[in-house]
Amino acid sequence: MSFLPSKYAPEGISMKDSSRTITIDRRPSQGQISKPTPVSPINTDTDIEMVSIDEDEEERTISQVLTEIRGTKVDSDEMEIDVFETAPPFTTVGITSSNLSYLIVDTNFMLAHLSVINKLMELAADYQLRIIIPVAVMRELDGLKSSSRVLESTGGKSIGSLARWANNWIYSVLAKNNLYVRGQKQRQKLNSIHLNNDDSILDCCLYFHENNPTSIIVLLSNDKNLCAKALSNSVLTISYQNELTPELIASTILQESIQRFGENTDISSGASTNLRVPLSAMNSVIHSNKNNATLSIDIPETIANEVLILLKSVIKHCLEKEYGNELDLVRGLDMDSIETIHDCTMTMIRFWIPVFSGYFKRSNVLPFERQDNSKHNSYNNKVPTHTNTPNSKHEAIEFIEFWNDILTILYSQIMTEKQNEDLLLLHNRWQNLIS
């Protein structure tokens, strides 16, 4: 097994390498994360086997096969990658860019350690990870589907079988719009000329490195030469070793991010107001009675607080679009006095005709109920609804769906594409908290 530069490798580590690599301590220590249980394959129409190849010779064979097909300039737009192009961009709600890490996966890692990639996908929410599959990797996997080279440590499976399983896994997660795995889009590259696959994968790393300056970018690869290129361009690398677990990989990357950028788990709506939510909130427990009707006390409050933050932010954007940045001069408006969801709704009612009615022209959902069931636009006939923190699971479901509809209507017309993506992920998170 070849090692990346590390202070625990036989050849040691230079001062230059020590400043830009992630070093994972392979020595056993008390409390070290144990090896994970075997990963179950995801449900697809085609069976996907989650093998993991730990033999040096087998990994060398895979690297050898890839070396044979690399070196030719093949980075063109000929391959159909519709799933890549139609999949929505990443969402980053729940974390700021300073703690978000991108994992760029090389072909050899996909072939030899698909189970590790699958587990990292499952850990992505807790460890703030996003997994990127480069276009070049898809092309290589497609080209390897017919390979008959047999790997003994897999029970006689061929490289072609591994490539087909990896391909099926990728298309399965992308087709389902998985929140944590994306394919590199054709426009997500720095170099527009045709590159060989090695350089194309490196270019993918550099694109995300340049466009996400406060994020950790990590190349997962067993290709020593490609890793060397990545390291020389300040991209961190991890090669598989028997002692590595997905949990150890994920936690090490997160700690590296915290060490570089500081620990920051704010939820940002894109405005100046942020809401702090700890990582442990993703693991909140719903305590239920036999009718599954009672939620633990912190979950409804967490959801309601997040709705409040988003509402206040989008209301401010709508008002600024109408009145400009001098909201302090607008009669009857005091943004600092908006402290509850009820306050948010009353602000929308107060400025309904000049500002907010236009956003809801084609909507059957309104942020209030009309007392007389008429379409009359008087101030007095509008009554705020769903403004209290829910007390039961049923109320929480109604609360989430109501405010998600209201926020979606406003966000789609006033907020950026990224902020709309953030809202989608946060809605999914709310649903998971009460499910």
Mean pLDDT: 74
Shape call: elongated
Number of domains: 2
Work out the strand percent: 5-15%
Family: Belongs to the SWT1 family.
Keywords: Nucleus, Transcription
Subcellular location: Nucleus
GO molecular function, one term: RNA nuclease activity
Q: Short description, anyone?
A:
With 435 residues, this protein is of the alpha/beta class. Helix content is 44%, strand content 9%.
Task: Describe the fold and architecture.
- The chain has 435 residues and is α/β, with parallel strands linked by helices.
- It folds into two domains: 15-264, Rossmann fold (3-Layer(aba) Sandwich); 274-434, no CATH class.
- Helices cover 44% and strands 9% of the residues.
- The protein is built from 15 helices and eleven strands.
- The protein has helices spanning 15-18, 56-69, 82-86, 107-112, 114-127, 135-144, 159-175, 197-211, 224-232, 246-261, 298-323, 341-350, 352-356, 393-414, 417-434, and strands spanning 101-105, 129-133, 150-151, 157-158, 181-183, 216-220, 236-238, 266-268, 274-276, 368-370, 382-384.
- The strands form four sheets. It has a five-stranded parallel beta sheet with strand order 5-2-1-6-7, with helices on both faces. It has a two-stranded antiparallel sheet with strand order 3-4.
- A hairpin with a 5-residue loop joins strand 8 and strand 9.
- Helix 11 (298-323) runs parallel beside helix 14 (393-414) and helix 14 runs antiparallel to helix 15 (417-434).
- The model is unreliable at 1-10, 18-46, 73-83, 91-97 and 265-295 (pLDDT under 50).
